[in-house]
């Protein structure tokens, strides 16, 4: 564009203006005939033509009926301002703009004043620009005046307010600006008055330090720029049309050429060129005055507005804006630290790449910023990552050569992302890259079958799935490709053909690994079509299907049944011995519509399926295959369908055969005097596996398997040589027997004898499992423990809930021995180091996957036991052994232990607190037994106990009232434990567990103030007179614990610190109170020193024992300069006489003599008890000094931060000085300037409204003053094109 002269932001509004606007409408002028009306000398000077009246009137024209003095008129009655009309949104924007144009033609100053007030009010300002201000004041003065009239009660403004009305207001606001420019595009915008005034105002407001002004004006300026781009585009089209008409007329023969028309066309083209030059000047003014500064604004929303609009400009008027000079701003801003700004960059680029013609012109930009776009696919903001993938998809469509193989691979793996929008976008990218290129050789292929195009694409999908090496995630791959490639994934006919048909001559057959992957993908596609929801981990739950989706679901299910009812028996027959394939194939029948077997006359295929299932279970002993067979039978044996009888007969025959075989083998296996061989053991184990798998889904109660399994388990205990797998499956089968029996007994129609039998069997089985807890085999112990936890939870007191009181005889409560054995199992098998568990059960070293699997198993064991604690099956105090491991095994079990603590606290707060303190006591005793009775508090073990106590303290939360009793009980138990055992070194030594008070002090902050006094009194019950006098290191835990209980209980003591630290706490000296006023004064300050000393000394003399002493008030140091306090101040100096505190009050000589006698008396009266008091006083003084130093350091640090955060503000708003946000932006010349240099902390004197100041300074925190906080480091090296 043509560079234009900058418009001055200090636009001087003329006091008198003249207008020669045409009375014709300014709404339509397609030929541009009125384009130059009003562009005479008078118009350029902003003067009214001679003979025009002053403001409010016009010759030859009646004032418009809709606007008078800036207010909307309806039937002569004043109603609302322009802002209120737009805010209500009830009137059409077109009519509102038309009314304003009429008012502008009548009196442009009045109409323009109303437009200015419109922008001011849209910013949330309660003030209004008056006519006098409009005529006599400059922009900076008007903006300062409006800043002072902001509402102090709230920091919100229309663009940030919530609610439907304000959301609609933003749209109406933008529409108003667009319609205003469109309606004025033929005349008014060229009068060098209206647009110059508006642009000047918006430029000034956009430089304001007030966010509301800056945000609103930037949005208005950007929308104004977009509207001008549309005008420029129309002018460009008209110029092209005029040029073509001129060329056509000129090329005619001389006889037919119309010279008058040529002159008109030349004149028209000249006027259009002048108009375009003016539009370009306006756009340059907005771009340089607003965009260049605001795209780097400290507020992310303002930056997002700029990037969004520049994307529109490049899309609408690509000839002018789609070049590197403008694209660089989008490229730089892709490194923005705020996700919403990065998102606008990507959406802006998508609009460009969507048009392939524009995409070709972006080659240089793409080569420069391609790596950044690829890296944004892993953005921490999911929305940004999704749009980055979509942008890469558009780039891929525009050119295949732009993205390298490495770029594509970085997107491919995202199809397995847990975030579904990212996975779906990556699936679309994958589909476009691998499946959308159809060559000429593939056009004549059949639609379905092995030789079809889909057959090739399905093979490609299988190859990709295998190369990704994530074979357990086939469901995620299918879900990612479902939206863009569902037709391909639903081509089950081609998949079946690839599996069953023989390859054609010259065709490469699928390998066994590829066939396994294809079977898995086929199963996942069937599941996705029938369930219509993403796999586990993607999505928040099942959504409600639309009518169209339900119809598609039913149609797909019908197709699946008709197709696989015929093909599934054939597939099972072919892959009968393959575990993985058979397991997946046997899951397909549960998605069948079983009615089709009858309606479609497919009974023979059902019989074939049942035969194949029988053969599969007969050939396999793998648990997964057997469970798949059991689940398939369970689904097919549905009484609602007519095929039930046919399937039930087959199932009964199968189970009869299995049970008879098991009983026969068991008799031979358990014969006395004979040693069972391996073949017999294998036969028993395989049959037992099948029975257990079927018993999981089917009720086998009529076969009475409890006796056989119990006998098998009992024999294993007696002989001790039973194979572990037989024992494990016998336990599992017996567990299923108990549960099926319980389901039968829970029915109201059951007999009493059944309940007695169940009670007897359940207790006998629990006793059997308890005995197996002592087995030497780890797998057997884990199975026994898991089953015991399940049974204890099922048959706990909660079995009677929901009106099942008749089951009370079945309640089973574990005795102390069983609870102890369960706890010992957890401690021995769960809380072990990884190094201790470095070998698997088969003796092979563990790899990383097996370690994770072993950890998962241990977590399940711990969770099973913690459920017993939560549901009050075992005593809560048994959880102490679990809780004490919280820190040591935090990475492995921290979440489980923390959740257990939370649940137990909800059940009983006091008992939970007692359990927590018990766990700390256990650790303390373990430390004593390991390191001896002389506790070194620097030991890592002791520090670990303190850290654990701190973590426990944090779990109590901030509401002290809710946990009041629990915390008090915790301190009570802790104090009793600390003084429970006397010292083995004899009297005079600290109790054995006294160091535990140091651990207990971690919970003192959770005590309420009145409770601290109560706990302190309870502590003194255990203390003797001699204990209070001891000051050796071994007594420090007692001293520190007492101090923690006394902290915060004395207001006077705290006032010393607050009085010292409060000075200088105010940031702005103009607003801060005097230093003296910020101190907390004691009542009757003049006499406070002497009276306090007297009270304290009297208290000291009257006390019987120092045990009950409170902290000294230290009132003699309240008025002293803290810098002059000396560590060598003596006891008498700390409690000096009143004369020392008030040197301006001379004492009578007789009074001085009496005072000297009293002082001498006091020194003589200092005994051992007084020395103890002096030591306590010195300690309190030291603590006060330390607190003062910490406060001073914190204040100095805060002051330093504030100095870096606040810029010198003198005269900031005068003469439109560049605002603070201008200095916080990224330099476009590859350099950053340190804007913190020369900042003066004490010169901030901008007197903005209080709420606005707080809001603005919160937004412009120190981080925002560093341009690198807005842009990532990678953008700092980006050069301009």
Automatic annotation (TrEMBL):
Stretches for region Disordered: 1-74, 1057-1130, 1142-1164
The terms describing its cellular component in GO are: chromatin; chromosome, centromeric region; cohesin complex; nucleus
Lipid metabolism as a keyword of this entry, yes or no, is no
Q: Which residue windows does the record flag with biased composition (Low complexity)?
A: 1057-1067, 1147-1159
- Biased composition (Polar residues) is annotated at 1088-1105
Taxonomically, the superkingdom here is Eukaryota
What the entry lists under Pfam families is as follows: HEAT_SCC3-SA, SCD, STAG
Q: Name one GO biological process term.
A: cell division
Q: Which family does it belong to?
A: Belongs to the SCC3 family.
Task of the protein? Component of cohesin complex, a complex required for the cohesion of sister chromatids after DNA replication. The cohesin complex apparently forms a large proteinaceous ring within which sister chromatids can be trapped. At anaphase, the complex is cleaved and dissociates from chromatin, allowing sister chromatids to segregate.
- Name of the molecule in the record: Cohesin subunit SA
């Amino acid at each position: 564009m043509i560079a234009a002269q900058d418009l001055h932001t200090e636009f001087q509004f003329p006091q008198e203006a003249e207008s020669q606007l045409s009375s014709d409408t300014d709404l339509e002028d397609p030929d541009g005939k009125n384009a130059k009306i009003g562009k005479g000398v008078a118009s350029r000077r902003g003067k009214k033509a001679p003979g025009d009246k002053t403001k409010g009137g016009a010759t030859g024209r009646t004032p418009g009926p809709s606007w008078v003095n800036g207010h909307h008129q309806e039937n002569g009655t004043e109603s609302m301002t322009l802002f209120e009309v737009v805010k209500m949104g009830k009137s059409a924007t077109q009519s509102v703009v038309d009314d304003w144009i009429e008012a502008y033609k009548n009196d442009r100053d009045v109409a323009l004043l109303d437009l200015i007030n419109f922008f001011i009010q849209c910013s949330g300002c309660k003030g209004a620009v008056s006519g006098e201000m409009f005529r006599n004041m400059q922009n900076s003065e008007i903006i300062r005046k409006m800043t002072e009239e902001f509402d102090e009660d709230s920091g919100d403004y229309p663009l940030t307010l919530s609610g439907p009305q304000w959301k609609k207001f933003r749209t109406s606001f933008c529409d108003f600006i667009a319609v205003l420019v469109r309606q004025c595009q033929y005349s008014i915008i060229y009068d060098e008055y209206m647009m110059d005034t508006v642009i000047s105002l918006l430029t000034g407001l956009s430089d304001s330090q007030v966010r509301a002004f800056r945000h609103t004006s930037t949005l208005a300026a950007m929308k104004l720029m977009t509207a001008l781009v549309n005008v420029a585009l129309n002018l460009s089209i008209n110029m092209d049309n005029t040029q073509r008409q001129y060329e056509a007329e000129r090329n005619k023969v001389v006889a037919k050429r119309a010279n008058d028309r040529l002159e008109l066309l030349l004149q028209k083209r000249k006027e259009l060129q002048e108009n375009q030059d003016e539009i370009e000047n306006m756009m340059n003014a907005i771009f340089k005055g607003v965009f260049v500064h605001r795209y780097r604004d400290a507020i992310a929303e303002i930056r997002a507005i700029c990037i969004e609009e520049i994307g529109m400009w490049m899309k609408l008027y690509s000839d002018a804006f789609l070049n590197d000079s403008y694209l660089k701003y989008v490229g730089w801003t892709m490194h923005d630290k705020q996700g919403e700004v990065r998102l606008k960059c990507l959406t802006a680029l998508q609009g460009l790449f969507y048009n392939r013609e524009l995409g070709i012109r972006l080659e240089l930009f793409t080569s420069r910023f391609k790596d950044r776009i690829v890296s944004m696919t892993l953005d921490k903001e999911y929305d940004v990552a999704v749009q980055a993938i979509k942008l890469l998809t558009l780039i891929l469509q525009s050119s295949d050569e732009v993205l390298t193989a490495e770029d594509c691979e970085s997107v491919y793996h995202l199809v397995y992302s847990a975030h579904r929008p990212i996975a779906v976008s990556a699936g679309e990218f994958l589909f476009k890259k691998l499946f959308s290129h159809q060559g000429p050789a593939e056009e004549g292929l059949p639609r379905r079958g092995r030789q079809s195009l889909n057959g090739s694409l399905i093979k490609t999908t299988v190859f990709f799935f295998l190369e990704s090496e994530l074979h357990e995630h086939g469901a995620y791959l299918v879900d990612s490709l479902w939206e863009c490639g569902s037709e391909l994934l639903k081509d089950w006919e081609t998949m079946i053909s690839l599996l069953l048909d023989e390859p054609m001559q010259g065709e490469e057959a699928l390998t066994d690994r590829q066939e396994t992957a294809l079977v898995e993908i086929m199963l996942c596609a069937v599941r996705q079509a029938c369930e219509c929801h993403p796999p586990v981990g993607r999505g928040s739950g099942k959504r409600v299907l639309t009518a169209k989706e339900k119809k598609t679901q039913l149609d797909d299910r019908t197709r699946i049944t008709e197709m696989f009812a015929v093909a599934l028996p054939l597939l099972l027959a072919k892959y009968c011995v393959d575990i993985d394939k058979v397991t997946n194939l046997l899951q397909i029948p549960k998605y069948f519509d079983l009615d089709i077997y009858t309606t479609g006359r497919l009974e023979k295929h059902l019989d074939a399926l049942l035969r194949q299932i029988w053969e599969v279970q007969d050939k396999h002993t793998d648990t997964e295959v057997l469970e798949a067979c059991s689940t398939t039978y369970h689904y097919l044996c549905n009484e609602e369908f007519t095929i039930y009888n046919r399937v039930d007969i087959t199932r009964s025959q199968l189970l009869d055969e299995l049970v008879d075989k098991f009983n026969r083998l068991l008799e031979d296996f358990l014969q006395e005097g004979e040693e069972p061989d391996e073949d017999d053991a294998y036969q028993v184990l395989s049959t037992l596996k099948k029975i257990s798998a079927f018993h999981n889904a089917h009720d086998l109660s009529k076969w009475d398997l409890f006796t056989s399994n119990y006998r098998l388990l009992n024999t294993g205990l007696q002989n001790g040589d039973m194979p572990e797998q037989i024992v494990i499956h016998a336990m599992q089968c017996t567990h299923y027997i108990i549960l099926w029996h319980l389901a039968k007994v829970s029915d109201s129609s059951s007999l009493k004898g059944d309940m007695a039998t169940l009670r007897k069997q359940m207790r006998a089985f629990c006793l059997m499992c308890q005995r197996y807890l002592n087995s030497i085999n780890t797998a057997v112990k884990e199975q026994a423990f898991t089953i015991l936890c399940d049974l204890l939870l099922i048959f706990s007191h909660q079995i009677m809930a929901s009106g099942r009181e008749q089951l009370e005889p079945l309640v089973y409560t574990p005795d102390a021995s069983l609870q102890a054995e369960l706890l010992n199992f957890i401690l021995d098998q769960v809380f072990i180091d990884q190094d201790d568990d470095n070998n698997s059960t088969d003796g092979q070293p563990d790899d990383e996957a097996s370690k994770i699997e072993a950890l998962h198993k241990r977590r399940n064991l711990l969770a099973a036991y913690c459920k017993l604690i939560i549901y009050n099956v075992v005593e809560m105090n048994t959880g102490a052994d679990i809780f004490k491991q919280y820190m040591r095994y935090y990475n492995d079990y921290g979440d489980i232990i923390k959740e257990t603590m939370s649940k137990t606290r909800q059940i009983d707060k006091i008992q939970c607190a007692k359990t927590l303190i018990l766990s700390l006591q256990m650790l303390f005793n373990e430390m004593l037994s390991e390191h001896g009775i002389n506790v070194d508090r620097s030991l890592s073990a002791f520090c670990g106990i303190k850290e654990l106590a701190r973590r426990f303290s944090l779990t109590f939360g901030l509401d002290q009232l809710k946990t009041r009793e629990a915390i008090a009980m915790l301190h009570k138990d802790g104090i009793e434990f600390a003084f429970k055992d006397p010292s083995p070194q004899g009297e005079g030594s600290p109790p054995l567990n006294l160091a535990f008070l140091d651990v207990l002090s971690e919970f003192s902050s959770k005590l309420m103030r009145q409770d601290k006094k109560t706990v302190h009194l309870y502590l003194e019950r255990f203390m003797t007179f001699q204990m209070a006098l001891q000051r050796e290191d071994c007594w420090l835990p007692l001293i520190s614990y007492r101090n923690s209980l006394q902290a915060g209980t004395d207001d006077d003591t705290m006032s010393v610190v607050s009085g010292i630290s409060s000075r200088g706490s105010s940031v702005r000296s103009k607003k801060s109170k005097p230093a003296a006023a910020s101190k907390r004064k004691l009542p009757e300050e003049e006499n406070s020193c002497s009276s306090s000393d007297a009270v304290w000394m009297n208290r000291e003399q009257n006390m019987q024992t120092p045990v009950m002493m409170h902290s000294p008030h230290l009132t003699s140091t309240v008025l002293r300069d803290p810098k002059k306090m000396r560590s060598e101040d003596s006891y008498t100096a700390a409690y000096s006489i009143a004369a020392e505190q008030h040197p301006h009050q001379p004492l009578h000589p007789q009074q001085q003599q009496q005072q000297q006698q009293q002082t001498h008396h006091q020194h003589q009266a200092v005994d051992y008890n007084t020395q103890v008091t002096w030591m306590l006083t010195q300690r309190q003084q030291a603590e006060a000094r330390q607190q003062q130093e910490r406060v001073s350091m914190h204040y100095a640090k805060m002051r330093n931060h504030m100095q870096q955060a606040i810029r010198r503000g003198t005269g900031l708003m005068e003469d439109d000085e560049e605002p603070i946000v201008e200095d916080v932006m990224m330099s476009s010349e590859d350099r950053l300037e340190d804007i913190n240099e020369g900042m003066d902390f004490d010169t901030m004197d901008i007197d903005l409204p209080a709420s606005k100041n707080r809001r603005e300074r919160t937004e412009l925190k120190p981080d925002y003053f560093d341009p690198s906080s807005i842009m990532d480091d990678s953008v700092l090296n980006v050069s301009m094109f």
